[in-house]
Amino acid sequence: MSAAKTGCAVVVMGVSGSGKTTVAELLARQLGWRFVEGDRLHPPANVEKMKQGIALTDTDRAPWLDRIGEELRGWATAGQSGVLTCSALKRAYRDRIRSARPDVRIVYLKGSEALIKGRVGARHHEYMPASLLRSQFETLEEPEPDEQVIEVDAGGSAETEVAAIIAALDLAVVRP
Fold it and tell me: Which whole number is the average pLDDT over 75-87?
């Protein structure tokens, strides 16, 4: 199927505090696409664990990744384009997403632990306490070249990062 029939899907990945939501929302708005915050797809048990400061395991993340895959497949079936956020910290997670939607484009917002720690310390997240940031970096398996992931410096402004994504993916911005 062509992209015209299945739509386009972009997943914005990175550790908590890398700017996924801000960048993905702006990207979706500029493209005129649907936006889904991947954290909203976590099962309640995962949310509760994170609220308690307990890092998720691969087993915990499996149903969440399946729900992300279902969302992406649903867009393809409906011919919709969209942007979804997902930490996608391990290659196995990204592979699971790709198995659900092989044409998905993944964008990695890469930032140093010092940069991200400063951001996380300055914000309040509904259920992702700053104490879990270290576990995110410990879990992170940076994408390998064969994954064809677009890497964007998370240290820029959201506007700069979105412009880099649009250029790298050769996407057309919706003009008002």
Answer: 96
